[in-house]
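Key result, reporting period 2: structure in, sequence out.
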């Protein structure tokens, strides 16, 4: 599939587009450590159902590049949410549905808070949403987040800079049941981690999340607006792997009070942290059914 490019005020965003040109627009947002290949076996079902998909590489991944060397390599969710709004503007796309996994899910929630008028529906995977600042996790979740604490140390940061692909591969190997990918599958996606900004984006993304790094001031007002939201009104479908060994499946249970619009939660038994890769048929079926109500 051809790689296309959209220029925004900050980035040259590389993306793939497919499906009927007159179909309703769906933006597919990958997570960390992943890239647009996570949608390869999900997107065809959306195309068959009449949707047009757009799958951008997030800042710091694959062919996406910053326009200026002077721009802070921020990976706060607000920055990436603004990237997507700028991306839509560059392509003259008005309202969309968004499907996001991991970091992509966090971006989708953020967009639902600050730009609900741009969204029809969102589907999120592997990450729940609650209003307010992130609380300190339970001890069991803290243990699963070892990689985030590791990156908050200087030794951990040095390791990621020197061994990024091996560090990312460790997450693929341990975030769910084994056997769902082979070396060739990982190697194709790991090419996206060769982006020269990937280490900085990776480190800042997790450090700023726990207030161990400074945010980019240009997104301060956007972040303020997001923090003021107490409930999401955009129709939302959450998909969580029942054997997710990174984000505990129990963390996404009982959160209906945080959504004033339609809200559904589906747990896929035996699936780990990467539902679009581990169970693409079930994920595609859930997404197309949910979008059919729009």
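The corresponding designed sequence is given below.
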């Amino acid at each position: 599939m051809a790689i296309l490019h959209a220029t925004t005020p900050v980035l040259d965003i590389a993306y793939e587009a497919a499906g009927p040109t007159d179909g309703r627009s769906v933006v597919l947002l990958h997570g960390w450590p992943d890239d647009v290949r996570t949608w390869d076996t999900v997107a065809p079902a959306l195309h068959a159902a009449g949707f047009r998909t757009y799958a951008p590489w997030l800042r710091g991944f694959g062919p996406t590049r910053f326009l200026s060397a002077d721009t802070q390599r921020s990976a706060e969710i607000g920055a990436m949410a603004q990237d997507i709004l700028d991306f839509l503007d560059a392509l003259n796309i008005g309202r969309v549905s968004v499907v996001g996994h991991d970091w992509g899910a966090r971006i989708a929630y953020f967009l639902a808070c600050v730009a609900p008028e741009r969204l029809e529906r969102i589907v999120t995977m592997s990450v729940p949403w609650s209003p307010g600042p992130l609380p300190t996790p339970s001890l069991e979740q803290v243990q699963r987040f070892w990689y985030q604490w590791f990156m908050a140390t200087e030794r951990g940061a040095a390791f990621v800079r020197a061994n990024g692909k091996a560090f990312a591969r460790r997450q693929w190997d341990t975030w769910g049941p084994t056997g769902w990918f082979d070396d060739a599958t990982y190697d194709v996606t790991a090419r996206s981690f060769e982006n020269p900004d990937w280490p900085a984006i990776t480190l800042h993304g997790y450090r700023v999340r726990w207030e161990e790094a400074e945010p980019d001031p240009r997104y301060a007002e956007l972040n303020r607006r997001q923090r003021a939201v107490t409930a999401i009104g955009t129709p939302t479908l959450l998909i969580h792997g029942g054997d997710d060994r990174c984000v505990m499946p129990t963390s996404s249970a009982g959160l209906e009070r945080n959504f004033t619009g339609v809200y559904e939660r589906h747990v896929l038994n035996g699936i780990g942290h990467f539902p679009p890769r581990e169970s693409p048929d079930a994920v595609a079926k859930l997404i197309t059914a949910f979008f059919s109500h729009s």
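Residues 4-291 form a domain with the Rossmann fold fold (CATH 3.40.50.1820). The radius of gyration is 18 Å. This case is discussed further under Risks and Mitigation.
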